[in-house]
Amino acid sequence: MIKALLTASAISLGTMFLALPVQAIGLTFNWSFVASSTLPGPVTGTITGLQIGNNNGSGITATVTGTPTGAFVGTVFDTFRFTSSGGGNAFTVDAGGNVTFADALYTNVSGDSLTFGGGFGPQLIKSNFSAVFTDFAGQTAFTTAATAVPFEFAPNGAVVLLGGLWGAKKLRKKLSKKDSQ
Fold first, then answer.
1. Do the strands 113-117 and 61-66 form a parallel or antiparallel pair, or are they unpaired?
2. Cα separation of 27 and 97, whole Å?
3. How far apart are CA 138 and CA 40, in angstroms?
4. Contact of 115 with 133, CB cutoff 8 Å
5. 92 near 54, Cβ under 8 Å?
6. 68, 43 in Cβ contact below 8 A?
7. In 3-state terms, what secondary structure has residue 163?
8. In sequence order, what are the residues at sequence separation of 6 or more whose Cβ sits closer than 8 angstroms to the Cβ of residue 139?
9. How far is 139 from 32, CA to CA, in rounded Å?
10. Residues 113 and 124 sit within 8 Å (Cβ to Cβ)
11. Which of 2, 21, 32 shows the shortest CA–CA distance to 117?
């Protein structure tokens, strides 16, 4: 009875540690701006991969989720090109998780471009200029999105699980020797 209880406890504890969410690799934000160009209206999307502090632009992916005409919806921009200020800092996220600075140009495989802030203002432009959404005087707004995914694999939990199973096995052997005497 004790053996079964110890084994079940070790497995339950290990499973619990494996199911705990780990700290997110990157922060996710929703972004938006209101185009005031020939195709006016809201332009929205998500951006992932940002970290607290200064971000140089690499490892960040922006996806368009809405435009006034539906153009670009689902388009992914993951090739960082440059910042207009030239300081090497594309985004700054403060300790509270707020984007306080944005100045970056991204492109996709089709050559379309997405610009966040900087000297250009926010803009989303098709490579052949058939769709142009710009707000030269405005700023991109960022709002926090979900940051942790439940049931991510937690490497430290695997170590605890293995240690618990090893300990349960040792204790089981010890108890079985005691029972046989």
1. unpaired
2. 8
3. 13
4. no
5. yes
6. yes
7. helix
8. 33, 102, 117, 121, 122
9. 9
10. yes
11. 32
DSSP states of 112-136? -EEEEEGGG-SEEE-TTSSSEEE-T
Structure tokens at 8: 């079940």
Q: What is the residue-averaged pLDDT of the chain?
A: 78
Whole-angstrom Cα distance, residue 57 to residue 33? Answer: 19
Q: Highest-confidence range of 9-13, 34-38, 66-70, 100-104, by mean pLDDT?
A: 66-70
Contacts of residues 95-99 at CB distance under 8 Å and 24 or more positions apart, as own/partner, are: 95/52, 97/27, 97/52, 97/144, 97/147, 98/142, 98/144, 99/29, 99/50, 99/142
- CA torsion sign for 137, 26, 46, 124 is positive
Token pair recorded at residue 77: 């921009």
Three-class SS of residue 179?
helix
Distance from C-alpha of 47 to C-alpha of 32, rounded to nearest angstrom: 10
Q: pTM for this one?
A: 0.65
Distance CA 136, CA 47 (A): 20
Q: Among the ranges 66-70, 115-119, 141-145, which has the highest mean pLDDT value?
A: 66-70
